[in-house]
Amino acid sequence: MNKMVEQLSLNNYKQGIADLYNRRSKTYDDSNWHLQICRRLLEYSQVSYGHQILDIGTGTGHIVLEASRIVGNSGRVIGIDIAAGMLEKARDKAEASGLGNVKFQMADAESLNFPANSFDRILCANTFPWIENKARTLRLWHHFLKPDGLIGIHTPANTAYVGYIVFREVLAKYGIELEPSNRLGTLETCRNLFLNAGFEEIEIRTEQHGSYISLDKAKAAWGGNYLPTPGQPENTLSRLSQTQLQQAKAEFEAELEARQTEQGVWNDLTTWYVIGRKLDEKNAGKL
Ligand SMILES: C[S@@+](CC[C@H](N)C(=O)[O-])C[C@H]1O[C@@H](n2cnc3c(N)ncnc32)[C@H](O)[C@@H]1O
């Protein structure tokens, strides 16, 4: 398999994401959680024999590897990602499994270049929150889907990840708005986002993957673990004075402590699986 060095020219925000996942790539597969999500997405997107699949934000290739077996010899799966470290893991796994119908490319999901009507399925697991311009990018992906093809996206709901929810709430009191666009809002705004990009027959399945976590783990969401945020490249915490920072941190910790139970802190992980169809124009009028 081709292991040539690839390079992308990324803005600071996306370079931050690539750096984050290059660091995470070493331990990413230690947990089974992402694999489970990917398997569900494959099932809900009705991936089957012979399909041409595009996996966006493929990471260590969970979807690509699973899909490769389903689509068989007459199918093809392409996984794209901006993090070289994640792609390297994915390629190693595909090579070790001897998969001949898969390909990985280093590419930005927002500026892909495939012919129109190329794929039966476009899948995107655990990645959509990172997309900067979600409306425009969905329209681009719609273009790459074959008529009657399905898009399948997994994304956390607004309420997900207790540490970040409390972090966001506390910082809002200090005039700092975090993560404004890396959640999809209400079910209605999510549905409209996909409708406006041209998808139809939109189905959103809601599932709860939450669990109790330790107080320490919840507290780790404080700015030390700052995540890049779409449209907000710099670390916004630097806008606070030292006194404000200490005060905000104390409020953040107090709120999490107040949420602690004997089992730990409930970490909501409401997730949405959004499935939409690109209508075959011949049939569009008949529906
Ligand atoms: C949480 S991982 C998900 C990986 C895989 N889909 C899974 O569920 O295991 C998110 C991946 O999205 C990639 N990513 C984020 N923004 C991207 C973009 N604009 N274009 C391509 N990949 C991107 C990251 O590099 C990372 O590998």
Helix and strand pattern: HHEHEHEEHEHHEEHHEEEH
Shape: globular
CATH topology of the domain at 12-160 and 181-211 and 268-280: Rossmann fold
Q: Which regions are unreliable across 5 or more consecutive residues at pLDDT < 50? A: 283-287
Ligand species: S-adenosylmethionine
- From the helix content, strand content and strand pairing, which structural class follows? alpha/beta
Q: State the helicity in percent bands.
A: 25-40%
CATH architecture label of the domain at 12-160 and 181-211 and 268-280? 3-Layer(aba) Sandwich
Give an account of the 3D structure:
With 287 residues, the protein is of the alpha/beta class. The chain has a domain at 12-160 and 181-211 and 268-280: Rossmann fold. 38% of the residues lie in helices and 21% in strands. It has helices at residues 12-24, 33-44, 62-71, 84-96, 134-144, 162-173, 187-196, 215-219, 242-259, 281-284; strands at residues 52-56, 76-81, 102-106, 119-125, 145-156, 200-208, 211-213, 260-261, 264-267, 270-277. The strands form 2 sheets. It has a 7-stranded mixed beta sheet, with helices on both faces. Helix 2 packs parallel to helix 3 (62-71). The longest helix is centred in the C-terminal third of the chain and has 18 residues, at 242-259. It is globular, with a radius of gyration of 20 Å. The protein starts with 11 loop residues before the first helix and ends with a helix. Bound molecules: S-adenosylmethionine (SAM). Residues 14, 17-18, 21, 34, 37-38, 57-59, 62-63, 80-83, 86, 108-110, 125-127, 130 line the site of S-adenosylmethionine (SAM).
